[in-house]
Automatic annotation (TrEMBL):
The chain crosses the membrane at residues 106-127, 155-176, 206-224, 267-290, 302-321, 354-378, 390-413, 477-505, 526-550, 556-577, 827-845. The lineage of its organism: Eukaryota, Metazoa, Chordata, Craniata, Vertebrata. This is Chloride channel protein. Keywords: CBS domain, Chloride, Ion transport, Membrane, Repeat, Transmembrane, Transmembrane helix, Transport. One of its GO terms (molecular function) is chloride:proton antiporter activity. Its main location: membrane. Residues 1-63 are annotated as: Disordered. Residues 12-21 have a biased composition (Basic and acidic residues). It comes from Eptatretus burgeri. InterPro entries: CBS_dom, CBS_dom_sf, CIC-7, Cl-channel/antiporter, Cl-channel_core, ClC. Residues 611-679 form the CBS domain.
Amino acid sequence: MSNVLKKISWSSRDHNAHAGERSPLLPARPQGSPEAVEDDPEVTSQDDKIQNVHPPSSPKEIPHTENLLSLKYESLDYDNCENQLFLEEERKIGPRGFRVVEISRWFICLLIGILTALIACIIDIIIEKFADLKYLVLKDKIDAFTLNGGLSVSLVIWATMNAGIVMLGSILVAFVEPVAAGSGVPQIKCYLNGVKIPHVVRLKTLLVKVLGVIFSVSGGLAVGKEGPMIHSGAVIAAGVSQGRSTTLKRDFKIFEHFRRDTEKRDFVAAGAAAGVSAAFGAPVGGVLFSLEEGASFWNQYLTWRIFFASVISTFTLNFVLSGYHSQFGQLANPGLINFGRFEDKNEAYTWFEIPLFLIIGAIGGISGALFNSINYWLTMFRIRYIHRPLLQVLEAMLVAVVTATISFLMIYFSDDCQPLGEDNVVEYPLQLFCKDGEYNSMATTFFNTPEKSVRSLFHDPPGSYNPTTVGLFCLSYFLLACWTYGLSVSSGIFIPSLLLGAAWGRLIGILLSNISNANWADPGKYALIGAAAQLGGVVRMTLSLTVIIMEATGNVSYGLPIMLVLMTAKWVGDFFIEGLYDIHIKLQSVPFLDWEPPATSHSHIASSDVMSHPVVCFQRIEKVGHVVDLLSDATCNHNGFPVVDEQDGGGSDHFGKLRGIILRSQIIVLLKHKAFIERGKYGMLGYRLTLKDFRDAYPRFPPIQSIHVSQEERECTMDLTPFMNPAPYSIPQDASLNRIFRLFRALGLRHLVVCNSENHVGLPACHCCFLSLALPPPAGLCRNASRFPHKDHRCCFSHSPFWTFFDLCSLCSLTAYTFLPSLIYDLPLFSALPVLFFQVVGLVTRKDLARYRWSEHGLEELLLAQA
């Protein structure tokens, strides 16, 4: 049971052999219940629909992991903590310092583009050398054994070579860094969504990713190298932007201002876009990919920086590969894969073909849905039974052997012989049983890298393949690609989907050509449309994928049919099952927040129903021993703690009047640096700690168990006032789940305090906020005051008996940036007077929201897995 629960997370290995052995599956906390879940084996619930779930005796009895929500994953802090230390530093920076920070952002994007392209060049060159050597040896062996007999020896050599190469890549992933498995796109989507995936942007992950994709592609698996480039670019961006390596324990003392989740998120989005640009030579497509697939926050300046990184990545890769191909300066290789241009007049489409393209899009949606469904059940099987690293390596080797065997048998039994021709565009022509001057066309699909096979299907002249050859290849490659995705190897799904779609698209083109005998039925054109349909049916991308294919082909005229095909494939596929990335995110039980809240979530679920209750709160002055005990309590499963005034009466469901919120990581730093006040010496601490102390500990904050506090120190106190966020976001206890969801999604929140109605508030209108930003800048403020509002500039407001959302002391900049992403017209304020503060009754976290998911049975509540 523990092994299965560990497999729920991407980076699942625990150094403690006994960790997680008693990790029960808990039903979600009863809606609105003030009682915490106890350690009793019989967990009760007020909801009759939620049944008690006990640890099963065998893996066969575990619930499907898409109905679980893992407590292992934490949220990232995409909301800046504007405490007293933060304001002090912002005042010291000044206008000149802000310009330096902005220039640094552009310089980091330049480095991201260059380094991502260099990694792509290394991967491409090594794979090309590996493939040339492997297929040259295999061609010589097959030709020799064809003449002398003993072709079975060729099969053994082929299978052994594939299994050995794949074994190396799988060992790296299974035993060294499991999070490097797959393409990495689901993990990066989760990171940009605000979920902290362990080890996802570490240097070790990058090294395993690069080596793993080299071995998996060279080993002949049905994978591509383009998908992992997105993950590689994100890791490069996360590392470069911090100016240090926590893995190598090297701090270069640069870019310290960007050591926070908010800044790192933007650079990771730029790295993902640079990865797409390097893979496909599509800088605009890379920007749209980051926007469509992940970025939880977007603005105009971020768009320009991401586009800059993408263009630099494309140019650098083009420049380096031109030198490698002895054509220095001839920039003809914009990406790792080049689809080639469709400029022949027979490859142009006509208006009456658009309905045919829509039908192909529907076929792609059905094929993609079937692919995703089969892969879903395969992944469920792996989670249940193939969860040990050794078994994962053996499965990868088995797939490599089966792939080589099927490839060999398909080539052996194929009688599709084509004339070699004078230009001889086939790199490794296999004659086998064909006549002299002919080659086996089936070998051109299996006996090559996937990228070159795609290009061949796009541009080989009509008559290069017969329908039987292409049909058998479609069937076999569909099953192989479906089995391969999800193995413990670094792999991508882009190229396998394109190759599969190009094959059945060319088959449709061949059939249309045979039926009509017309020039418009060009098989290469339909191979391109089929490739787009298949990829869209699998990953369900529309906008970014349209632009990527347009840029990769260099033909804008195909924009309309490609867009229609992708939209049709998505609509048809969504009717049956979700996209492949979303499926794997749910199978990993990640608290991922979609763009829109669950249907009907506004009707009957309020914040009091989903909040964590009871919530652990701190007072502004707390005893050190009490703080350590609370942080060490395993039942405390949230990492943000409201700071309250001492409760003066009221019900047991109230925890005091809200003064701010402080994070667990901040308290850990305070305990580590002994930021204590001795008894009877209040006010003596001052500002000994600075933001640098918190940034030095970021992002690997030590666990509370590593902090030693003596008995004498336990009697000291801590003043949390300078370190807490004095203006936390809050919500009334009767607010709907729909409204809470939109606030979390638009503002990138990690915690949202739930309060009762005992308060007096003011209400600033949206125009008041922007009028205050338009006022003449205070003394010492540069002309860019509208872009960098002065940190002392407070909000104007008008009194109105509405609900509390902001503090009067909230920064004007924070208030303005709250209006923009959330489309808020009015923003309530609350007074800083203690008598007007409101009572805290709970806390909403990402996991509380992600527990609710819409299904065909209605709005369902997921189980929580302590793993």
